[in-house]
Write a structure and sequence with these properties.
The chain is mostly helical. The protein contains four helices and three strands, in the order αααβαββ. The longest helix is centred in the middle third of the chain and has 82 residues. The radius of gyration is 40 Å and the shape is rod-shaped. It binds zinc ion (ZN). The site of zinc ion has 8 residues, from loops.
Length: 237
Amino acid sequence: MDSQLLALIDLQSLDTRIAAREAEAARLPKQIDALHAALAEAKRTVDALRAKADAAKKDLRTKEKDLEVITAKRTKAEARLWEVKNNTEYSAVLAEIEAIKQEKAKAEEEILALMDLQERLAVDIRDAETQFKRREAEAQQNEAVVRKKLATVEEELAGVRGERESRARELPKGLLGDYEKILRARGGVAVVAVTTSAICGGCRVAIRPQAIQELKAASVLMVCESCGRYLYWQDSA
Ligand SMILES: [Zn+2]
């Protein structure tokens, strides 16, 4: 086979490997970002629960103060029962005490509900923290794996790029330029095989029988009349 054609085939193979590794090198950091995002989400869950617990604690303190005020009000009202001058006043104070009792019962109920809420939130916070820590440990492990993979890919990339450079130097500048132009224009594929099915491996257009003969002889560089890619003959697919 023509040495220039061989160099082009090699170059294509190297460029395909470079493109695959470049895609991988671009994809892997996104995996790390996704790990961080998931972790941040788990952290937000913990923070939101903590904020709820803080609010409940504050509410509870307020309600407890309210209860103290209500209790004092009741003591005062009960003392007034001894000072009233007639039945009407007595009934009025009794009614006031009854109202205070209801107010007190309501406050106590609210306090119990808040205590209940606090207990539930404490459990939820513990669960969320456990989950966060587990996720954090997992994320660290996964990130280490991804970073290792990324380092490997970048190392491979450097190697293949070096190989590609030295192979590219073997081609005349004009031919290399043409090859690179087709590579960019045709989705990273500039050299394709034609097999016994006699179609261009790039654009699937049928190759003329005369051209097949020339391809088999491989004495000159041939390009696909339809897509412009370099063609070479390959007996089996
Ligand atoms: Zn073609």
